[in-house]
């Protein structure tokens, strides 16, 4: 979770201690600001596979696929895009990416010891916000 929070620009390590960034401090008491920051930072990752899986994660999660099916759906689409692993034979690519961790954390994976199941409407809405164009403010 710390690695993900760092990648999102919410925390940093200073003198060996975890500390909030300016963005993290601003969002500390403002849930909407935190949500907007999270949405604006996705997808995460630097590798090509992270990029593809990073855009697929919010598309799959936002479509309403139950949490237990996120990884297999993403893996299937990655395979259709041509991704394969060569270990030890051609296998489907792994779906897990830095981006997929975010909806998993939002759905409670860090608090539970069992696999996530079902659909969380707030997590799905957050995922859809990642792939939607920003709206202009209401007048």
What's the arrangement of secondary structure elements?
Blueprint: H1 2-7, E1 11-14, E2 17-20, H2 22-26, H3 31-41, H4 48-62, H5 70-80, E3 85-86, E4 90-91, H6 98-106, H7 121-131
Antiparallel strand pairs: 1-2, 3-4
Helix pairs in contact: 4-5, 4-6, 4-7
Mean pLDDT: 86
Helical fraction equals: 40-55%
By secondary-structure content and strand pairing, the structural class works out as mainly alpha
- Proportion in β-strands: 5-15%
From the N-terminal CA to the C-terminal CA, the straight-line distance is 38 Å
3D shape? globular
Count the DSSP helices: 7
Care to describe what's here?
The protein has helices at residues 2-7, 22-26, 31-41, 48-62, 70-80, 98-106, 121-131; strands at residues 11-14, 17-20, 85-86, 90-91. Strands 1-2 form a two-stranded antiparallel sheet. A two-stranded antiparallel ribbon has the order 3-4. It is built from seven helices and four strands. It is globular and about 45 Å long. The chain is 49% helix and 9% strand. The model has no long low-confidence stretch (mean pLDDT 86). The longest helix has 15 residues, at 48-62. It has 139 residues and is mainly alpha-helical. Helix 4 (48-62) packs parallel to helix 6 and helix 4 (48-62) crosses helix 7 (121-131).
């Amino acid at each position: 979770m710390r690695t993900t929070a760092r990648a999102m620009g919410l925390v940093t390590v200073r003198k060996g201690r975890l500390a909030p960034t300016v963005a993290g401090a601003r969002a500390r008491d403002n849930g909407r600001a935190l949500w907007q920051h999270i949405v604006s930072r996705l997808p995460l990752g630097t590798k090509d596979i992270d990029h593809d899986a990073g855009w697929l994660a919010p598309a799959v999660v936002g479509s309403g696929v139950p949490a237990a099916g996120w990884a297999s759906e993403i893996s299937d689409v990655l395979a259709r895009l041509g991704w394969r692993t060569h270990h030890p034979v051609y296998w489907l690519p792994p779906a897990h990416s830095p981006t997929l961790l975010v909806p998993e954390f939002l759905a409670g994976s860090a608090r539970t010891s069992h696999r996530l199941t079902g659909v969380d409407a707030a997590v799905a809405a957050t995922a859809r916000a990642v792939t939607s164009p920003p709206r202009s403010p209401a007048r």
